[in-house]
């Protein structure tokens, strides 16, 4: 799974939120953003009783989308990072080494929030002592036991869900992995949360829809068992999930990235040259990774076009001029995935989260107001020895906020469309067990122009543009033709790719456990 971008110089704002069950077989779990201690209200009732929705907390500076759930009987409230790139759910033990060691908290720039105590739950069961272990690219681990307990999410309870119980961890927040069970850390695979949703009759199909909303919004949702056609624009494009090979099981939400382009407000365009040695470039759709990662030969073209700066001496990170937050407001970066073309406003790739740490950055950066760029290179994964090739794309939250994505584990399909940001209405289509695949459905005709008040964040940058309370950022999307392109297929990497990029006094977490085929 992936850990969001935890940053030691930023206070991780965790939200409280609640989900509302309005149906058998549909569960909606909301994604919300706000400050510590703010309790968001329940979502409005759904029109059908066949899906489940749950709110998640959008924490830009904390690096992820957070869900508040309850575990055990009586329920113990814990916060977890939603991760489409991993498959295990795990909670932090009340006696985890990070929770009890000031040295480790300083080392990893994190501390424990809400923890779980099995002795306080009458429904706790030990499954495998010492059986849980996920290894990270930086050598850090989350390890402990496998346990089972009741798990409440979106207003519904999954009985006796198997989870990791981490007594050793580099992160103080647990992970809610919602990937294929074949990608679990366990030697013996088990029914994970998506499997149990179906087997316990809560939803009909192993599928869910993700709507992260724009980065200044304090609302978003994951919808288990259904599709909300009010949350995207135009037709839902259906593309296949790539398989590692003919004999292997599906392990990650990997699709083909066939082309990229930049369109500027003056009408000019820049087409990114894709590698020619193969017809596809695998791209993993991963909500547990804060930024997005591209191969050097693709990323460098974008870096050059936008005048970014890469710190090769200390952090290895690429930075961009914060001026892009206000200039080129209509410029978009288009990602071609199969038959879909997702437009990401350039400003969505400009993260103003460095705050007072700007003074610690290299002195030769050619712009005065420095922001973290939402695209980095995959070279760090290869240089760490974790992978043998960096020719893959990892599309994290900086991409996913602009897309509405349906993850269909039953039919091995992805449904994807341009997100309708700040939508305030709901229209649910339940996904049925006897469906032959994702349905052909169409969203709204155009982007909703609803106004939103952004929450301030303690990690906002010096320009004050992040969380400034201004109106939401929107972009007008028009259909664009699919660019012909080719790519190089790397070794298969499970969606739970994770890395730490060490920096002066801070680090960025990019995901979690790593599996290579």
C-alpha Rg (nearest Å): 21 Å
CATH topology of the largest domain: Cathepsin D, subunit A, domain 1
CATH architecture of the largest domain: Beta Barrel
The low-confidence parts are 1-23, 32-50, 451-517
Structural write-up:
- It comes from Diplogelasinospora grovesii.
- GO terms for molecular function: aspartic-type endopeptidase activity.
- Residues 447-475 are annotated as: Disordered.
- Belongs to the peptidase A1 family.
- Residues 1-23 form the signal peptide.
- This protein has 517 residues and is mainly β.
- It folds into two domains: 27-211, Acid Proteases (Cathepsin D, subunit A, domain 1, Beta Barrel), CATH 2.40.70; 228-503, Beta Barrel (Cathepsin D, subunit A, domain 1).
- Helix content is 7%, strand content 32%.
- The protein has six helices and 31 strands.
- The strands form seven sheets. Strands 1, 2, 11, 12, 14, 27 and 28 form a seven-stranded mixed β-sheet that branches. It has a six-stranded mixed beta barrel with strand order 4-5-10-6-9-8.
- A hairpin with a 2-residue loop joins strand 21 (332-337) and strand 22 (340-345).
- It is globular, with a radius of gyration of 21 Å.
- The model is unreliable at 1-23, 32-50 and 451-517 (pLDDT under 50).
Strand-helix topology:
Layout: E1 27-30, E2 52-55, E3 57-59, E4 64-71, E5 76-83, E6 89-92, H1 97-100, H2 102-108, E7 125-135, E8 141-153, E9 156-168, E10 174-177, H3 193-199, E11 207-211, E12 221-224, E13 226-228, E14 232-240, E15 254-263, E16 269-271, E17 281-285, E18 292-294, H4 296-306, E19 309-310, E20 318-321, E21 332-337, E22 340-345, E23 350-351, E24 370-373, E25 375-377, H5 379-383, E26 393-395, H6 397-400, E27 403-408, E28 413-419, E29 428-430, E30 500-502, E31 507-509
Parallel strand pairs: 1-2, 5-10, 6-9, 17-26, 18-25
Antiparallel strand pairs: 1-12, 2-12, 3-4, 4-5, 4-8, 6-10, 7-8, 8-9, 11-12, 11-27, 13-29, 14-28, 15-16, 15-17, 15-21, 19-20, 20-24, 21-22, 23-24, 27-28, 30-31
